[in-house]
Amino acid sequence: MNDPAVPPPGIDTSVPNVARVYDALLGGKDNFAVDRVQAAKLVEFDPSLPSLVRQNREFVNRAVIWAASRGIRQFLDLGAGLPTHPAVHEAARGVIASARVVYVDSDPVVVLHAQSLLSGPDGVIAVRADLAQPETVMSPQTLGDLFDPAEPMCVMLAAVLHFMSAATAHDLVSRYARLLAPGSVLAVSVIGSDDPEVAARARQAYTTTKTYTHGRADVASFLAEAGLALVEPGVVLAHAWRGNMPDPGLTVTSPFRVLAAVGIREH
Ligand SMILES: C[S@@+](CC[C@H](N)C(=O)[O-])C[C@H]1O[C@@H](n2cnc3c(N)ncnc32)[C@H](O)[C@@H]1O
After folding, report:
1. Ligand 1, closest atom to CA 56?
2. Averaged pLDDT, 108-127
3. Beta bridge partners of 78
4. How far is the CA of 127 from the centre of ligand 1 (A)?
5. Is 86 a pocket residue for ligand 1 (Cβ < 6 Å)?
6. Is the pTM of the predicted complex or chain greater than 0.90?
7. Residue 83: predicted pLDDT
8. Which pLDDT does position 241 carry in this prediction?
9. What is the distance in A from the centroid of ligand 1 to the CA of 247?
């Protein structure tokens, strides 16, 4: 996007948008001035935020590569956001060339943009849907004929559950887990602060979208109560999930953290 003279129809460039602010934090170019101003406010609030969102993306890539290395060929990225590199299909196809990927987002801008970038690869689609409707998302109406429901799948809920209360997140993870074939995995990450005052101030800075802080115990129970076994190393800081290097940009003083975990449906 990068501030075209006339923005695409239907896009409100006067208010910041969650997906575009996140893209600006990642150093992407799919955002408008209003989003960059919002991102700058957040960085002023905590200079380590760009490093934290990068850690989240790196966790996503490692989780996808780990799942593909187990032979999983179907990837469902819920709340996918604007395309980044490597994207989920690029990471998965680095391991299994025939991996199929469905990107789901409720934001029409994200979906339009993803569709224009994904017009090339077969077996990769971007669909507009509300991830809060698992039964609809997991139906052929959304997945088309790309996925075989009897085959294991990797479901990504990266940096989205903090837009939901713990009760809603519990309910959603359980409903998705029920629809998965044995051997499937579900990856979760949440960004937040364990300091309620910091969380409240950040909430004011981060557009008008309501956010919630979920702690380690919450994330562990989202997976456990859904009947998913926690994959080693458990619920950890994103850079520590099967990563071998701490992010050099991570300051120990950051009031925020990204928690990450993967659960597996064993039976
Ligand atoms: C912070 S971005 C995360 C992007 C990506 N998952 C990642 O971890 O890098 C959150 C995305 O979730 C999308 N989103 C929020 N609520 C959603 C919902 N109910 N259904 C589908 N997408 C949603 C937003 O539009 C946004 O693109």
Report:
1. 8
2. 84
3. 104
4. 12
5. no
6. yes
7. 84
8. 94
9. 23
Q: Whose CA is nearest to atom 9 of ligand 1?
A: 57
Cα–ligand 1 centroid distance for 225 (angstroms): 23
Task: Note the pLDDT of residue 189.
Answer: 97
Reported as a pLDDT band with limits 50, 70 and 90, residue 224 is: very high
Residue nearest to atom 13 of ligand 1 (CA): 79
Atom of ligand 1 nearest to the CA of 84: 9
